[in-house]
């Protein structure tokens, strides 16, 4: 078997695995059996692992898209950006690590898919709130084609996609995962007309759900 045939087979198997996983998630959402397994973990480490994996894929596909990341501490109206290295402070959250990874991975995958050339960035901000209502804000911004006007009103509905490679289930699943955590997710086109930004707001200490 030629190497290109083998690689095509591997890609198709991965697509089938992803489709099966998404259908299972949708079933759990529809019958309200989606459960969270919360733990206290470092969001910074999770994001750095995701960036590393996506950078490897970009290099493998010889794509020129640049993937950037940033971590911030926003406390008492003083925003302190941190450096893109191991010396930046850790940011912790009480949440389902696998599910949070799933959501951020989906947003990064979509952003890269629609940004053939340009920049995709992910930023994580720890935002100090009143009455210990601290939040984690994640932003994924790209300079790609943006969100099509026909899709924008139905962005987080089932089977909404303009990509031949997608199922249109990723954002629907992501929205339900975020809301199960007591959070919010939204997306919009960038004001400068280049690309789109998706934002996730999650309670840092989780909810009782």
CATH-scheme architecture of the largest domain: 2-Layer Sandwich
For the record, the CATH class of the largest domain is Alpha Beta
Instruction: Provide the CATH superfamily of the largest domain.
Output: Histidine kinase-like ATPase, C-terminal domain
State the end-to-end CA separation.
50 Å
Average pLDDT confidence is 85
> H/E series, N to C?
HEHEEEHEEHEE
Shape: globular
Find the structural class using helix and strand composition: alpha+beta
The total strand number stands at 8
Architecture overview:
It is a single chain. The chain is an alpha+beta fold. It folds into 2 domains: 34 residues; 166 residues, Histidine kinase-like ATPase, C-terminal domain (Heat Shock Protein 90, 2-Layer Sandwich). Helix content is 35%, strand content 26%. It contains 4 helices and 8 strands. The chain has a 6-stranded mixed β-sheet. The protein has a two-stranded antiparallel sheet with strand order 1-4. A hairpin with a 2-residue loop joins strand 2 and strand 3. The longest helix has 28 residues.
List keywords for this structure.
209 residues, alpha+beta, Heat Shock Protein 90, 6-stranded mixed beta sheet, two-stranded antiparallel ribbon, 8 strands
Give a summary of the structure in a few sentences.
This protein has 209 residues and is of the alpha+beta class.
Blueprint of the fold:
Layout: H1 3-30, E1 38-42, H2 43-60, E2 66-75, E3 78-81, E4 92-96, H3 97-113, E5 119-127, E6 135-142, H4 170-180, E7 184-189, E8 196-203
Parallel strand pairs: 2-5
Antiparallel strand pairs: 1-4, 2-3, 5-6, 6-8, 7-8
């Amino acid at each position: 078997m030629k190497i290109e045939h083998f690689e095509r087979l591997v890609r198709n198997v991965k697509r089938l695995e992803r489709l099966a996983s998404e259908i299972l998630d949708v079933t759990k959402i529809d019958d309200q059996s989606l459960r969270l397994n919360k733990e206290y973990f470092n969001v910074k480490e999770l994001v750095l692992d995701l960036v590393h994996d996506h950078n490897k894929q970009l290099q493998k596909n010889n794509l020129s898209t640049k993937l950037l990341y940033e971590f911030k501490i926003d406390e008492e109206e003083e925003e302190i950006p941190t450096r893109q290295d191991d010396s930046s402070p850790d940011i912790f959250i009480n949440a389902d690590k696998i599910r949070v990874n799933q959501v951020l991975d989906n947003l990064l995958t979509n952003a890269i898919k629609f940004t053939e050339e340009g920049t995709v960035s992910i930023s994580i901000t720890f935002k100090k709130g009143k009455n210990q209502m601290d939040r984690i804000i994640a932003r994924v911004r790209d300079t790609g084609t943006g969100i099509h006007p026909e899709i924008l009103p139905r962005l987080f509905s089932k089977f909404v996609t303009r990509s031949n490679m997608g199922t249109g289930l990723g954002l629907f699943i992501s929205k339900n995962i975020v809301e199960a955590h007591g959070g919010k997710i939204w997306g919009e086109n960038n004001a400068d007309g280049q690309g789109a930004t998706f934002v996730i707001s999650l309670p840092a200490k989780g909810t009782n759900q």
